[in-house]
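Record type: ASSEMBLY
Status: queued
Input:
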Amino acid sequence: MGYFERIFKEPRWGVHPDDHKRPAADAALRLLPPPARVYMPLSQHVGGAARPIVLVGQQVHKGQLLAEAQGNISAPIHAPVSGKVSSIGEVTAPHASGLGFGAIVIDSDFADRWIDTDPVADPFSLSPEEITRRTAAAGVVGLGGATFPSALKFSLGKRLAVGTLIVNGGECEPYLSSDDRIMRDSADQVVDGVRIVMHAIGARVALVGIEDNKPEAIAAMRKAAAAYPEVRIRPVPSRYPMGSDKQLIQALTGKEVPADARAAEVGVLVHNVSTCAAVHQAVRLGRPLVERIVTVNGGAVARPGNIFVPLGTQVDELLAFCGLNEAPSRLILGGPMMGTLLAHGRVPLVKGVSGIIAFDAREAAVPRAGPCVRCGSCTKACPMGLLPLEMAAHIRSGDLAGAVDFSLTDCIACGCCAYVCPSHIPLVQYFSHAKGELAARERTRLRSEAAKRLAEARLIRLERESREKAEAAARRQAERKAAKALAAASASQAQAVVT
Amino acid sequence: MLSAVGTLTTMGLVLGGLLGTAARYLAVEENPIEAELQSLLPGSQCGQCGYVGCAQAAAALARGEALVTLCPPGGKAIAEALAAKLGIKVDLSAVADDGPRLAVVAEEICTGCCRCSKVCSTDAIVGAAKQIHNVIREACTGCGACIERCPTEAMSLVPLPVTLQHWIWPMPANV
Ligand code: SF4
Ligand code: SF4
Ligand code: SF4
Ligand code: SF4
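Status: finished
Output:
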């Protein structure tokens, strides 16, 4: 893009961090040999945890159903390797809290034997409902990181008659290149997946947004989509957070999604490129989601690149495969802007993980936070048009309601504000804390409402019980009286007979 | 048959009318602020504040006879809300609030005497006579009313376990 175009076409929001994507993005995809043991969490998606249906000691094949979806919003889990279920219990979650969650542990037999799959030669002959069903059964969730069950989004798109499918190939986070790699290596699969998703939701066009810092991916996708005019490849300026739904929709269609609305309400639906490839695998090949591409990058990694990994593999094992120059000073799951800080690498990889970043001491150095100098940089950078400094000030003084008045709930936690802040104030952490606190208060409110209902129900029960007791007592008394009267009557009768 | 229907109908009408008039004439004046205060209280009627129930506690608050820190299970959050509603400032540092708690039964020493389930204001304890009792997590408000009742000290309050869904990021250290 020329300088002139840059000034006019570049969005005003966001930041432009050094992307650090190469050389990892250019390294050829490598395959991780099946690990000896995988830890398959039951909760790798938004919604209810899956319910295990296998028993300890059971032999499973690769792709076999381990746990079924439970509740309205949920997704099933399948075996990423063949082997034996060795235990079902708690493992440390890939989460900043370091708390545990349920997982199924499988000891691999290294045979990698697949289940009998049910491929479909022509997915376009299937009804949209059937595609949605197959996608749900394969446990496909949003692989860009949101991990919302994809099949539910299909149904939503169908119901709201969405005309345009937006395919997110933005991958705006620095260091990550898993989407880039899948577009370069498997563009045909991605495009096929895109067309299957279009068929499932009844969309007429698909706009594939790819940041212009990935020319190879753009070329590969253009070639793969050449035969399908309804799939349009659209380069977008590289600017963080271009991969965020609202920003990408605006860049591609010019439509603005209102703060409290879903994308489907403006007639579009967003799916990530890796998710589309997973839909291709699920529908055309009948293979559930059990593997994915993960970027391993950062200064501490000896051979950075993209690795094809069975889900449930421990982070440490993957890092060992890529080699470490030094012990990582900071370990991040996902990108450096929005990723999850890990305390250690003994946690399993889950469906939504697109990368692991191991920073060396130099990269991990965090400058000390200073007081706010009210420079306004954070406001300029915020893609949602918020006032981060005001929100943080309210949160610091404990005034959450004040922060909400400044639209705290619109914050997408993209981290642009903290990135530009010259005082290095951990702004996003303030917002995450406040959002958690607000959610906790809401839970308390719901709980106390439920308690009120229960207390009222108990009073009604006590009343009813005492009434019933009184009635029963009255009845017994009446019966006793009647019996007495009867006895008296028969006695007098007997007397009459005698006399 | 007809006479029975007639009697019951007239009885219903007469009694209904009576109740209606009684309600009008004997109505209790309810202070609007009282209702609002009551809606802020937990409503589990546990009686730990020293009043019979949450309504009486709200009335006392409205009359200015009780402190906003009166509700032990409510903790800081409710004290704060009450103070805001009444427009007063309080020092909350003295309020003991070690987070939400939950009653649990030590199954090996429960004799199934049923005393605890009788006092629970939200019917959170289930169990039949001579059977081990148990607390339904979702229904227990952690009021602690059952703890004293247990003759074998089988009941205790434990902090509500923190799960992934309940964990919140800590506030950044002050700069
Ligand atoms: S306030 Fe939220 S949305 Fe705005 S830049 Fe900061 S993290 Fe991003
Ligand atoms: S960027 Fe940092 S220093 Fe500048 S106004 Fe925002 S919070 Fe304050
Ligand atoms: S179980 Fe005990 S602590 Fe829980 S609500 Fe009932 S009486 Fe209160
Ligand atoms: S009061 Fe104690 S012993 Fe009796 S039923 Fe309850 S827990 Fe069991």
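Annotation: The pocket of iron/sulfur cluster (ligand 1) is lined by residues A 381-384, 386, 388, 411-417, 427-428, 431 (CB under 6 Å).
Annotation: Chain A is about 40% helix and 15% strand.
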